[in-house]
Amino acid sequence: MGMTITEKILAFHAGRPEVRPGDLIDCTVDFLFANDITAPLAIKEFEKMGVGQVFDPDRLAFVFDHYVPNKDIASAQQCKITRDFVAAHHLPHFYDVGRSGIAHVLLAELGYVVPGDVFVGADSHTCNHGALGAFSTGVGSSDLAAAMALGRLWLRVPESMKFVFHGRLRPWVTGKDLILTVIGEIGVDGARYGAMEFAGDALTHLTMDERFSITNMAIEAGAKNGIMEPDDLVLEWIRPRARRPLTVYRSDPDARYRDVREYDVSTLEPVVSAPASPGNVVPVREAAGVRVDQCFIGTCTNGRIDDMRLAAKVLAGRTVHPHTRLLVIPATPAVYRQAMDEGLVKIFLDAGAAISTSTCGPCIGGHMGVLADGEVCVSTSSRNFVGRMGHRGSKVYLSNAAVAAAAAVAGKLVHPDEVVRETVPA
Amino acid sequence: MAIRGHARKVGHHIDTDVIIPARYLVTTDPAELAKYVFEDLDPSLRQRIGVGDVLVAGENFGQGSSREHAPIAIKGVGISCIVAVSFARIFYRNAFNVGLPVVECRDAHARALDGDELDVDLATGVIRNVTRGEIYEGTPVPEFMQRLLAAGGIVGYVRAELAGRQ
């Protein structure tokens, strides 16, 4: 019987001819990373393990993205733990303020993850990298510490589920709307412990940026990983940046899936996840009219150049509504620079948006745009749990970048068509 | 390994943001994190938790972020064990890694009431409701996870692994 792409990658890294769902395997890891929140705890546990050295300093990155630039004394003290560890261990792949970006976007951009990898990060959205045909999963700090010590990690082989998308997306509908639609259908634990494999002709028309936003949110359905078979676009994208040799795996025709779901995406509308669960998905037209205090375009889910371009299409020549605040945070310095070169930053500034250096800040209610009691935010991020972006009485709608930009202009939730059609650019 | 404690009930799909909001993730100290545990779920819950209590939860407990601060905060406030219908996978691993036992059980959440006295047998997964005289069949903690717990979490496990290599 055949294997899925996930099973093949895990079998190779476990040194076995084959693996089956449910098998407990001990596998080698190709690359590891932690961020400024998870690294200090990983370092603390690593030091207790008494191993002394990281198994391979060339296979570990620390990326500061959550509480940077440091928001207060406590976060500065916390970052110092990692900064000191990096210096003491002469770790070569350390990304601090100015050179850093949101880890998942940055590490992919810089070629740290390649097709065929087992990539492990102390951050739940590490599943992001599955769009490259890698097995990529999030773990806690202690697991990361164990992998830093051993170069290996125990894993339970997940059952695979397949999601097949057919057709072409309509204007203002993006990869984000596909993944939100799936989560809305199967629920926030619909893929718990599983592998979500995405396929179908609709994917071939999506850019890498849109594909990443799909695999990025596999965790929101409870999955261990999200994955896509690498196609020509992936290979074209990865070859100039890959730091290691890559291996292309594909699922066998007779691979076994727990579930196969097919979608005609050609009739799909832009959707939002209403408060307070990513699984609470409705077409934006059904939520239209909700007054919006803040809009946020950024994060590992939708802070890439495609998202900046899409937002700019809505914002060009228009201004943010007087009762609404718009935050735009390019995910990495490269995205920022590209947005600047293309004139998008000027569009955002002219519209009245606040633009920030790369940080996860607002997504976790940490800094740079925390919500007050009763406030509503439309956010391109991935989670809208109670208190996620601030006060426990605040509310978050998750959307794509066009919907967030349109809400900023209208001061309320609307279909982007209505903003672009009804307000003539100045 | 058996655990006895009073049930403290929470609902379904409890996420790591309401277990310990990200605004407090500027420390790894269990006592400090415990001060804010469940703050956004129910600000009074923390006061009602006594040392040794068993947290009884619904489906998908611990969904969301990979923050190990979540099981650390729960352990820090004195919870001895979590019994849930199901667990989100990263939380499940993290709990064992920090030495907080968790058991999957379908019936405990539906039948036990807040405050009931529970006996939890990790090896068999059997939960005895002492107050009500009921038995709930849970899933035995997998042998591998029991070894992790016996080693005191992943740190002890790695130390043993490294010792074995020499």
TrEMBL record, chain A:
It holds the Pfam family Aconitase. Its EC number is 4.2.1.33. It catalyses: (2R,3S)-3-isopropylmalate = (2S)-2-isopropylmalate. The keyword Lyase applies. It is an enzyme of class 4 (lyase). GO terms for molecular function: 3-isopropylmalate dehydratase activity; 4 iron, 4 sulfur cluster binding; metal ion binding. Its cofactor is [4Fe-4S] cluster. Gene3D superfamilies: Aconitase, domain 3. Residues 22-411 form the Aconitase/3-isopropylmalate dehydratase large subunit alpha/beta/alpha domain. Catalyzes the isomerization between 2-isopropylmalate and 3-isopropylmalate, via the formation of 2-isopropylmaleate. This is 3-isopropylmalate dehydratase large subunit. It comes from Candidatus Segetimicrobium genomatis. The gene is leuC.
Automatic annotation (TrEMBL), chain B:
One of its GO terms (molecular function) is 3-isopropylmalate dehydratase activity. It catalyses: (2R,3S)-3-isopropylmalate = (2S)-2-isopropylmalate. Gene3D superfamilies: Aconitase, domain 4. Its EC number is 4.2.1.33. The keyword tRNA processing does not apply. It comes from the Bacteria. Residues 54-100 form the Aconitase A/isopropylmalate dehydratase small subunit swivel domain. One of its GO terms (biological process) is L-leucine biosynthetic process. Pathway: Amino-acid biosynthesis; L-leucine biosynthesis; L-leucine from 3-methyl-2-oxobutanoate: step 2/4. Keywords: Amino-acid biosynthesis, Branched-chain amino acid biosynthesis, Leucine biosynthesis, Lyase. Pfam families: Aconitase_C. Heterodimer of LeuC and LeuD. PANTHER family: 3-ISOPROPYLMALATE DEHYDRATASE SMALL SUBUNIT 1, 3-ISOPROPYLMALATE DEHYDRATASE SMALL SUBUNIT 2-RELATED-RELATED. Belongs to the LeuD family. LeuD type 2 subfamily. Catalyzes the isomerization between 2-isopropylmalate and 3-isopropylmalate, via the formation of 2-isopropylmaleate. This is 3-isopropylmalate dehydratase small subunit. The gene is leuD.
